[in-house]
Amino acid sequence: MGIWLNYKNVVKRNCTNSQDTQQDLMYWRNNLFASTLIFLLPLCFIALLPSLYWIYKTHLLSVAVVDLLAVAVVIFIALVPGIKIITRKIIFMVNLYVFSFAILYFVGPSGSSLVYLLACTVFSTLIFPTVYGYWPAWGNCIICFLFGACIYFNFLPVSQQHKIELGEWIAVSMNLIFLSFLNVTLIPRLFKGLQSTINKQIQLQNELIQEKQALGDALKKLSQKNGELEQFSYIASHDLQEPLRMISGFLTQLKNKYDNKLDEKALQYIRFAVDGSQRMHRIIKDLLEYSRASKIDKEVELVDLNTLFVDVKGVFTKSIEECKAVITTDQLPVINTHRTLMEQVFQNLLGNGLKYCRTDEIPRIHVSAKDINTHWEFTFKDNGIGIEKEYFEKIFIIFQRLHHKNEYSGTGIGLAITKKIVEYLGGKIWVESDPDKGSIFYFTVLKKNNNTF
Ligand code: ADP
Question: Which range marks the domain in which residue 442 is found?
Fold first, then answer.
């Protein structure tokens, strides 16, 4: 086995070019050439045995010489290093033609010579570029003509003479020529088809690489812009806080100091202005949270979501008591995650469940969790006012609200923050809802190592 493998490696090294790629037709032609030599050499020895026996019986020593010479040349081409592949191929073809002609000359057309001549056309169209396609067929024409001349001028060995008539040879050789031309016409078609398939593949690959590059560039620009935008909104909202604090502070002072001197209309205006500044304060606070959503709390820790949920529920104690809401949970997992981010998600979803409740029913909110292999899936189910199907996507976009602030207070940022956090945690968020029946908010988070229940 070791000898066979070594032998194969030597022939492959000699007859193929390591720089050729599989998209190169020459790669396949060279491989075919190497494989032909790999199998031909042992077969030559096997074929040599019966021919040597036959030669021993018929005393055709000249054929023995031709046979041995041909095998020697094949060994030379396959095993001797340092020769160019094209030279090896040319020697191989010349050897095959000489061998075929010699067999034809010494044994006559009844020997295997015609088969070898036909094989010459097959081999040469397989291992040489298509442009040389018709050369082997013409080669066969010349050999047929030469052999015809040998018959005509009685140049054949004595044993061969009177064995074949010129007319008979013409008939036989016409068949050989016909088949040779058929071969050299058909085989290149196969290569043409292969070439165009390979070309298409290369073109597609190039296009893909270009598109990938363009996409990469666009993504880079996008994330850069996104970063700038986040930075901008952070700075803007942070800087806006100060003048806003001044406005509401002075308004409160105005009201306190001049309360008796101002008429009802003026006081109403001040109330509106205070309301407006408070609302603006909430928006700025939410905006700040939005721009910080995926920046803070990079530390992952083991978080028991049952305790976290109790904490979050504590934030809403007042409104839970007011509306007598019933809040239940399944056993929640203990997971490796960013505590404050998870807290914020829970807070936003629970807060919305409590806020968007129906007046005719006690709010009921149920929270559950499910292990879905790579992720945890959480659900927040409520029996609130529900959402129309057409808004299922829209509500996750920043500032998108479905109600006027007088109906339900809010800034339209909570779900956008939640979505951003969930995506940061490697998951997604979506909603299923029936208007007037309630909503189920689903979200997933990617499991980190060692997640446990
Ligand atoms: P906000 O509550 O401040 O308006 P959100 O981003 O949290 O902003 O929500 C966006 C919109 O989605 C809300 O205005 C509301 O119309 C709708 N919404 C959110 N949660 C619920 C819910 N549980 N039930 C019904 N509608 C909801």
Answer: 296-446
